[in-house]
Amino acid sequence: MKKIFLLLTSLSFFNFYAQNTPLYVGTYTNYESEGIYRLQFNTETGELSEKELAIATENPSFLTFSKNKKVIYSVSEGQKSAVTAFKLKPNGKLEFLNTQSSNGRGPCHVSVNTNSTKAVVSNYGAGTVSIYNLNDDGSLNEASQVFDHNSKSEKSHAHSAQFYKKDLFVSDLGRNGVYQYQLKKDAYQLKSSSIIKTEGNPGPRHFSISKNGKFIYIINEYGSSITTAKKTKKGFKQIDHDSTLDENYTGKNSCADIHLSKDERFLYGSNRGENSIAVFKRNIKTGTIDKIQNISVHGDWPRNFTLDPTGKFVLVANRKSNNIAVYSIDSTTGKLTFSKDYAVPTPVCLLF
User: Fold this and answer.
1) Is 50 exceeded by the pLDDT of residue 244?
2) Where are the alpha helices (DSSP H) in the chain?
3) Strand 167-172, strand 177-184: pairing
4) Torsion sign, CA atoms 89, 93, 95, 99
5) Which has the least CB within 10 A, 25, 153, 154, 188?
6) What gap in Å lies between CA 113 and CA 136, rounded to an integer?
7) Measured CA angle at 169 (ends 144, 84), to 5 deg
């Protein structure tokens, strides 16, 4: 009986960790939070557990992994505007590797290219974008390029940037444009001031690029909308523009984050104010989208959200209500069903 008990215990232990994947949570540390937290997410049940502090650090408001997932990069919206590299320890906690200046106030986003040789940081306050060469151990060199998006007539608020193959796209909320840079002789050069023309003051914040690079989906913070652009021989062309709000909602709102589903049949966006996730069905051929659901985030101010590695769940970081809400995804319709929420202090970024 003792052997059977030990065998069952071992199997239960193995199954628990086989189904679990670590989730790292970036936060603001001006309340109860102390830095970056680590939880276990069960990809079968959708449950979060084992919350622990991975490392104490100031305002790690956005996180991203290196390709080999051995290093996490974090911006710090603190007294020193910086980007920092943390090494993953065998126990899942983080160890400080090195830090560099973000070259501007209010760093709010960081991303890494596919082979982890470069990182890019967007500085909302300063309107600058900094590019860093990465060392073999994942540490950061000083910025090799810094782009100032401010003009004499317009104040820049660079809000996010992503690499796609040899190109770099930058979303500028202040100047209402998405800029495209091309890599030439290991340096990026501006190709277009904005890939599309915008009307009014929509405030492009984050964006999602389809795997084939033919479509870009831009979520607009001020406009509470998503702009869809299609790649053409001459550049990009706007093909769609959709509200993220329920037709009956009349209050204030600020959009935040956007993600395509794993199979790219659906698109999700977060609303701060309406406090909802907007769900869109996507036409894979034409790239156009149609809204099919607005569902409550069961909290306040959804800053960032993510899909789990299996593509079966959506997790939402509700900054003001200090909780993470978990939803299951209907694989046929793409619609979300609320499962449960978990207490985490001022969560603003979720990283699997």
Assistant:
1) yes
2) 2-19
3) antiparallel
4) positive
5) 153
6) 14
7) 45
Tokens representing residue 82 in the block? 């910086």
Q: How far apart are CA 134 and CA 139, in angstroms?
A: 6
Paired tokens of 108: 């709010």
CA distances from 343 to 120, 166, 318 (A): 31, 40, 10
Q: What is the C-alpha to C-alpha distance for residues 228 and 302, in angstroms, rounded to an integer?
A: 22
**The amino acid at 123:** N
Per-residue model confidence as pLDDT tens digits over 121-180: 999 999 999 999 999 999 999 999 999 999 999 999 999 999 999 999 999 999 999 999
* DSSP calls for 75-86: EEESSSEEEEEE
Calculate the dihedral angle through the C-alpha atoms of 154, 159, 165, 167, rounding to the nearest 10 degrees.
10
Residue of 272, 228, 226, 234 whose CA lies nearest to 253: 272
- The answer on pLDDT for 17 being more than 90 is no
CA-to-CA distance for 281 and 288, rounded, in angstroms? Answer: 9
